[in-house]
């Protein structure tokens, strides 16, 4: 609001509301708490966890370490975990059939987590890139083009297998047209009426996914390829409104904006336009960028992470995927 009348001074002094911490907290417009946090984890079927070179302090977790991590999340009051599988090359194929096997890595992990930590919400990634030899999120044709409708048939099976294993929320991240409606219909047909769909409704073709692709071992498969013909163009904003509107109409319960830090205008636009929960993903490249700056002494790690996540919350996200979730939960208690 613009006001060119300077006669309000000194009656109006904005700094009075910033004088003490107690006053600042009393009038704060945005508050971050542990309920906003979702912890993404990489899981492996190997006996030992592995360091991820491009994501310092983050590991591909073996089952034992995953269970210890889940226990830590519960103890810190974090309500949700998001699973991303790291698949051995011998299980990958051009069509990604491993994605929907009932005894697959992700399916077994879901069942074990829900068995030992029933109160922890389990969110699962529905996409084929960890499972395909070509590293794309779908089935490719002879021209290496990702075919939409054939891919959806696999995604339906994948989502159903996750629901059958006990997933609370399935999260299609592939950006195929029409997949939310197809998955919702498949879940309804099989009586999974209460399984939620978190749609990656506005997922941009971002350079900030690099460390993630390294973490799930899909970067080598993708090689010189890209995902420009199905993920959104970073130059477009209004297109996100159409994407979200379609996914909501098809049955999405929650929509995701990805990445988060570089797309806060999109988060704000979606939150302002639609009466639905909006999540955001502080992606691997954003994590690595802040970590590298902190390790180099350019930024304070705690302050930069907290400010970045608070800004995502301020822009309108009600849930935030962040690899710093456990640290943030600890800092919030201080």
Task: Please tag this protein with its features.
334 residues, alpha/beta, TIM Barrel, eight-stranded parallel barrel, two-stranded antiparallel ribbon, 12 helices, 39% helix
What does this structure look like?
The chain is of the alpha/beta class and 334 residues long. The protein contains twelve helices and twelve strands. It has helices spanning 21-26, 63-76, 105-116, 148-165, 179-189, 210-215, 219-222, 238-250, 264-273, 284-295, 301-314, 325-333, and strands at residues 37-44, 50-51, 59-61, 80-86, 121-126, 139-140, 146-147, 169-172, 196-203, 254-258, 278-281, 319-321. It has an eight-stranded parallel β-barrel with strand order 1-4-5-8-9-10-11-12, surrounded by eight helices. Strands 6-7 form a two-stranded antiparallel ribbon. A hairpin with a 5-residue loop joins β6 and β7. The two termini are 36 Å apart.
Query: How many domains would you count in the coordinates?
Result: 1
Instruction: Strand order, main sheet: write it out.
Output: 1-4-5-8-9-10-11-12
Mean pLDDT level: 94
- The count of helical stretches stands at 12
Give the CATH architecture.
Alpha-Beta Barrel
What's the main sheet like? 8 strands, parallel, barrel
The CATH homologous superfamily is called: Aldolase class I
User: In CATH's first tier, which class applies?
Assistant: Alpha Beta
CATH topology call: TIM Barrel
Given as residue ranges, the uncertain stretches (5+ residues, pLDDT < 50) are none
Architecture blueprint of SSEs:
Layout: H1 21-26, E1 37-44, E2 50-51, E3 59-61, H2 63-76, E4 80-86, H3 105-116, E5 121-126, E6 139-140, E7 146-147, H4 148-165, E8 169-172, H5 179-189, E9 196-203, H6 210-215, H7 219-222, H8 238-250, E10 254-258, H9 264-273, E11 278-281, H10 284-295, H11 301-314, E12 319-321, H12 325-333
Parallel strand pairs: 1-3, 1-4, 1-12, 4-5, 5-8, 8-9, 9-10, 10-11, 11-12
Antiparallel strand pairs: 2-3, 6-7
Helix pairs in contact: 3-4, 4-5, 5-8
């Amino acid at each position: 609001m613009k006001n060119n009348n300077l006669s309000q001074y000194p009656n109006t002094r904005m700094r009075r509301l910033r004088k003490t911490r107690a006053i600042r907290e009393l009038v704060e417009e945005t508050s971050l708490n542990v309920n906003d946090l979702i912890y993404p984890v990489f899981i492996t079927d190997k006996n030992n966890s592995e360091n991820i070179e491009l994501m310092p302090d983050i590991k591909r977790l073996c089952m034992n370490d995953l269970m210890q991590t889940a226990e830590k999340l519960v103890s810190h009051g974090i309500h949700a975990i998001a699973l991303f599988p790291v698949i051995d090359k011998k299980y990958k194929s051009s069509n990604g059939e491993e994605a929907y096997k009932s005894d697959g890595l992700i399916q077994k992990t879901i069942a074990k987590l829900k068995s030992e930590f029933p109160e922890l919400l389990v969110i699962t990634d529905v996409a084929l890139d960890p499972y395909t030899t070509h590293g794309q999120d779908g089935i490719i044709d002879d021209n290496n083009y990702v075919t939409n409708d054939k891919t959806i048939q696999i995604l339906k099976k994948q989502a159903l297998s996750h629901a059958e294993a006990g997933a609370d929320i399935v999260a299609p991240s592939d950006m195929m047209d029409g997949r939310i409606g197809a998955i919702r219909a498949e879940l309804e047909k099989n009586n999974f009426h209460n399984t939620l769909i978190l749609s990656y409704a506005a997922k941009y073709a971002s350079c900030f996914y690099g460390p993630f692709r390294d973490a799930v071992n899909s970067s080598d498969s993708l090689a010189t390829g890209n995902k420009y013909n199905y993920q959104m163009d970073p130059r477009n904003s209004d297109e996100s409104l159409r994407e979200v509107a379609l996914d909501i109409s098809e049955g999405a319960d929650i929509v995701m904006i990805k990445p988060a830090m570089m797309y806060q205008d999109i988060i704000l636009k979606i939150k302002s336009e639609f009466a639905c929960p909006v999540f955001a993903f502080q992606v691997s490249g954003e994590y690595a960028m802040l970590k590298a700056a902190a390790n180099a002494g350019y930024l304070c790690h705690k302050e930069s992470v907290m400010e970045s996540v608070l800004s995502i919350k301020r822009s309108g996200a009600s849930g935030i995927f962040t690899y710093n979730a456990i640290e943030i939960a600890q800092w919030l208690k201080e």
